[in-house]
Amino acid sequence: MDKDIYILGIETSCDETAASVIKNGHEIISNVVASQIQSQQRFGGVVPEIASRHHVEQITLVIEEALAAAKLEPEDLDAVAVTEGPGLVGALLIGINAAKAFAFANGLPIIGVHHIAGHIYANQLMQPMEFPLLALIVSGGHTELVMMEKHGSFKLIGETRDDAAGEAYDKVARVLGLPYPGGPAIDKLALESDEAIEFPRAWLEADSYDFSFSGLKSAVINYKHNLEQKDGSIVPAHVAAGFQQSVIEVLTAKTLRAAKEFNVKQVIAAGGVAANKGLRASLDVVFEKEGIPFYVPPISLCTDNAAMIGAAGTAMFIDGKRGNMEMNGRPGMQLVSWIE
Amino acid sequence: MIWLGIDTANTPLSVAIVKDGAILAEVNSSMAVNHSLRAMPVIEELFETVQLKPKDIDAIAVSEGPGSYTGVRIGVTIAKTLAWTLKKPLVGVSSLKVLAANALHFSGLICPLVDARRNHVYAGVYEYVDGNLVAIHEDRHLGIEELLDSLVPLGRSILFVGKDVGMHEALIMDKLNGNAVIAPFPMQLPRASSLIFIAQQSEHEENTHAFTPEYRRIAEAEANWLMQQRKEKGSGSKN
Ligand SMILES: [Zn+2]
Questions:
Q1: C-alpha dihedral over A203, A206, A207, A209, to 10 degrees?
Q2: Which of A79, A130, B13, B236 could form a disulfide with A109 if both were Cys (CB 3.0 to 4.6 A apart)?
């Protein structure tokens, strides 16, 4: 590389207002996240209107902090990368319009990044990606298996047919009277539990890489209901452990089967639920046994952040991808390859 | 002194560049087109039209609401990002005051009004006094009937301004009969040049980062949460 590439990443697709400066697509120069979790906890989930209000309050502060921490001026940047979708439309619009105004004011190109491409490219910040690569994306909004033959090429091979894994965690946590977000609370309880209730596994068709979690969620609700009708009460830790085992077993088995079928050189996990200790341990064990390198970024890069958007944005920048001032938020944006 | 003015608070979009008290260019439209899609391209075109660069402007004025939550946020986000990164002062002006400014020199009261659905409106009451637009009633979100009932006792002639006035014209005429005047269509849309005109007479924001929309209404989830809190507190104290 002749000249270093500095990209400002911006992410506002859900309830984190984030900005980051990435050097050459793999080096984090700064990474700032303003979380709204304390505000959203009151409502037991993310309220879109509240999220948007917080983003407006934070957006310029977060960008300024990212530049200051990087000790860079806008003219030192090569481009601005921003999450274009999917996500909450009102939340996306704040990041996109701030990115457009910033790019316009400073004469910089703008690049629209798919949020999931960002989650996958978070791994590029830890170690170089090797292809073919299989990515398991698990978060509050996503449960997907994506194959990559090379940079910028994505093939969705499996996805959830109903709830996302993280969504199931949040709903089950509510049933168990645990706080929002449900993932960390259930993970912790499950790890401490010495017993696990047996819940069903949703394997779907034998050759399918799709997922389904709504049946599992209903099984948990029914289990609680049945016990309560007999004047019994559940042991939350046992339920948490059983639920978590069912989720992990299916995620692990399908990821392993896909990794073998496609003969991949690397498996990566991404998204907020990838921070789950139980899931990480399970994937570690099977891929170690299989001799396939498996990576999960640290928690700060699993949950929503702008460093991942800067990393994916840099790969797009190198491939000549550019957006313009007509960029709009795309809440239902599909993950498509930017390279044929 | 060169000003950029942006109003995306409601369906209409208005952007203007004013230099030393003269309009260089202004774009007004009232189409149901997403402001996120249109606002920045229009701003970009406007700078090309007047052959200026973003860094050439000296100040930015923006309509701060009330209005469509998303619309207000788009204008405010663009304006505060430009002001911060270009290191220029930012002035926020009520979207209703911008509408009222269409009626400068009108000798009665001015009621700018924007429909907020379910028989509610955002409305203010202004008066042009000694060359200044003064708020008689602060901007509010309220029922249209409640608004009109609050205007009757003032016993003065009132000019209703805004493109949504027509939706409520029958009720306005019924309640205020002789005192109501409906502004004609050239006065219906907010104009960014008027926004700049008002901004020039206003203080700029001390902290651009802290600048946020004037929603004039708390979010529904927040209202429900507060009500719940009050209920819980109420039942708690009885125990
Ligand atoms: Zn995410």
A1: 0
A2: A79
